[in-house]
Amino acid sequence: MEIENLVAALRHYDGPVLKIMEICGTHTAAIFKSGIRSLLSPKIKLISGPGCPVCVTPAAFIDRCVGYAQKENHVLLTFGDMVKVPGSSGSLATAKGEGARVELMYSPLEAVEKARAHPHLTYVVAAVGFETTAPAYGLALEEAVAGGVKNLKFVTALKTVPPALDWICRHETGIDGFLCPGHVSVIIGSDAYRPLSAAFQRPFAVAGFEPEHILAALYDLVRRLEGGRKAGVHNLYGNAVKAKGNAKALALLERCFVPGAAMWRGLGMIPGSGLYLKEAYAAYDGGGRGLDSDVALPAACRCDDVITGRIEPGDCPLFGGGCTPSSPHGPCMVSAEGACGIWYRHSPVKGGNKR
Ligand code: SF4
Prior knowledge:
disordered C terminus
């Protein structure tokens, strides 16, 4: 179908209100940048889901990382988007300002190089991410083992998306369909959503990140919901996503990690949703298990409601006032993939609710 016709169909949709969750923060950002929301019928509601790894990393993990950064002869390595995320008593940025050793990395393999170059220091990698980034940590781990690098540890908050979607389907029953994350789907494959779609009778559509990809997936979901065809997974990103995913990456994950329960900030403990270092790599394990109670979100922060779609970022009383990207109150305002930060950066008005 021509893009104009597809947009017209979405604009003129006049059936029951449909709530569609875009799971992935990259989709949220693309939707805002391209103005897709303004093209849709008011009866099609887009909801931002929990697909930002930084937003769902519990404050207890930040506290653990701060603890490593403050330890003598230890250096905490992290991607930049974790630095400002609040822990229970401050962020890594705060700790760094007070003398703790926090360094940015651009790839987990860099950690191996640093550890090799500075054998008198212990480098601790804050391993945060979903199936998309987990293989990079696995590669670094195998590289360290192969090279005999022993002064390296991984403190893990790696998570997998399907168990979180299972949680969403069980607890947030008002969501009608799901726009599946393109990058995660490249690794896990489109078939990974079939059990969820069948169990909860919801349509899933895998989409790329160009506006026309997203519009085509939204049209696909709306058309199926309109027609009463609720179950089924449609892969509309077939040039990148295979049904069974990326076999090499999945084998790497299988070699390095074992699944276990994980704490999601705002959602709670979700069985089987974490990836932890296998016993064979215990010497490299800086912890990650045992974050089974999250410290509370900062007072008045509604990140838990934002990542489950119960409210939109603009509904939070702190949005654009007490909470901005330069002075974030919660993780959803910090990350480039966090819904609050995306809404703030791409909305013409910087306060209050807006579509
Ligand atoms: Fe939390 Fe800030 Fe988002 Fe409110 S605007 S939910 S305080 S991150």
